[in-house]
Amino acid sequence: QQQVKQSPQSLIVQKGGISIINCAYENTAFDYFPWYQQFPGKGPALLIAIRPDVSEKKEGRFTISFNKSAKQFSLHIMDSQPGDSATYFCAARKAAGNKLTFGGGTRVLVKP
Amino acid sequence: GAGVSQTPSNKVTEKGKYVELRCDPISGHTALYWYRQSLGQGPEFLIYFQGTGAADDSGLPNDRFFAVRPEGSVSTLKIQRTERGDSAVYLCASSLATGEQFFGPGTRLTVL
What we know:
The complex is a heterodimer.
Chain A: E1 4-7, E2 10-14, E3 19-25, E4 30-38, E5 45-50, E6 56-59, E7 62-67, E8 72-77, E9 86-94, E10 100-102, E11 106-111
Chain B: E1 5-7, E2 10-13, E3 19-24, E4 31-37, E5 44-50, E6 53-56, E7 65-68, E8 75-79, E9 88-95, E10 102-103, E11 107-111
Parallel strand pairs in B: 2-11
Antiparallel strand pairs in B: 1-3, 3-8, 4-5, 4-9, 5-6, 7-8, 9-10, 9-11
């Protein structure tokens, strides 16, 4: 049972373009939604996170959009750079617990 | 300061053998988590410690897997009678109470 579904599995974007990754969740008990960036051979690193009382959060070139009624959230990477080439994971966490439930990941390749 | 460290970085073992994977969390972090990441997938939760006790071990796949954190700092994940399906990257993360989880680089386990 996949509680957090992520798409696409991979995407290629030109330098300066916008990367968009989408996630959908099923459990309405989730109340914290982080995005992680992972480079090969490294552990995931927190990029940006949002709570469901906010519809959008922006940090630099990274923006999360959140649609509570649709149970969907997305990551937008503006002005994509070759250094952004990595695998991105969305995740969700319940208020009552601390474990993260991850999506399947999106491999992003930014072409120079 | 130092991040989460995991040893060994790579472990190759034979089917049926016993292995131990070690995690050194960030100093002062009370919470410690173990996740397993299979190739091309997102991390999957295994177990979570708050202090010395396992607060949630619902992700351990079967009784061959066991983890300890005897002094509330270093943790060891133990796998008995390893199977080829146990091959994966085992990630450890730590956090302050319910805060952001910081991940280590992982231990890549290969069961031949």
